[in-house]
Structures are given as structure tokens and as C-alpha cells.
Amino acid sequence: MSEVKKKNEWLEWTKAIIIAILIALFLRTFIFATSIVEGESMDPTLEDGERVIFNKIIYILGEPDRGDVVIIQRPTKNYVKRIIGLPGETIEINGSDLIIDGKKYVQTFLTDDALYKTGNIGPLTIPQNSYFVMGDNRAISKDSRNGLGFIQAEEIIGRSELIIYPFSEWALTK
């Protein structure tokens, strides 16, 4: 193999590696990222220590929806919670009943045990550009009921899409 051909081959490999790195950085910065679940506030949907991939671009293209499991960015830490109430809605929680704009909403993502540990709240009207969130493990979750308050739209940095670690737990998070 000639010296020029070897040099060209190295140059091509170097370009391919640089392009791959740039694509990976672009995807991680603007499209997808990972987050580690800390704590048990989203049990059984997400467990402590699981690593999830979250979609960062989805809320640039659309609005969060009720039931979405979202990543909330706060100055001290990120939180993983489920959107329960949307901007402008009036919500009330009466024991195991979630009432949104006067209509009972069935929370299919909760265990029976979690339903009875939600407590009583409201009625509350959610401000525009804000969301009401709760963890699926209602008894221990720090959420809009008890410390996080209403979540501003710009604090929601993505929607959890997929559990990637531990490998035995691979699943969609909806």
C-alpha cells in the first residue's frame, strides 16, 4: 500500500469519527438525553436507579399532555413526574377521586394503593403556561401538592420515552 493511500485512509477514518461524534453531540443536545431516576416517587412506573431516555424536542413541536411522564428542570435538581393538570383547568382531588373541570378522571397508571394515598386538594385553577404534576407513588412524592407547586412550561425539558437500564427493565414509560 502506498504512503499516499495510507494517509488518505487515515484521513477518511478521522473524518468519519469526527462526523459520528458531531452527530452524537447534536442528538444529545437537541433531541434525546438520559436521566437517572432518583427516589421512589414514580414507583411502580419508574424505580429508583433506572436510567431513562427522554425526548427533548417533543415540546418544541407540541404541548405536554395529561399523563406524560416529564423531566422537570429546577436549579437544584431535576424531577421526574406525571402531568395531571393542564393550563387553565380546575382540578380537585378528593381522596381517590381526581376531578378535572368537574369531571372524574380515571387514573389508569396508578395502583389501588396509590389512589388512596393522594389526599384532598382544591379545587385549584392552574395558571396559564403552568402544569400540575404528581408522582405515581402519591404517599411519598414531592410534587405540585407539597413543594414543587405549579410547573412552568419552560421548566419541562422533555418527556420520558424509554427505560434503558437496567437492561432487564427495558420498557416504554407511557
TrEMBL record:
It is an enzyme of class 3 (hydrolase). Pfam families: Peptidase_S26 (PF10502). Belongs to the peptidase S26 family. Its main location: membrane. It comes from Oceanobacillus profundus. The lineage of its organism: Bacteria, Bacillati, Bacillota, Bacilli, Bacillales. This is Signal peptidase I. It is found in: Cell membrane; Membrane. It catalyses: Cleavage of hydrophobic, N-terminal signal or leader sequences from secreted and periplasmic proteins. GO terms for molecular function: serine-type endopeptidase activity; signal peptidase activity. CDD domains: S26_SPase_I. The active site is at residues 41, 81. GO terms for cellular component: plasma membrane. PROSITE patterns: SPASE_I_1 (PS00501), SPASE_I_2 (PS00760), SPASE_I_3 (PS00761).
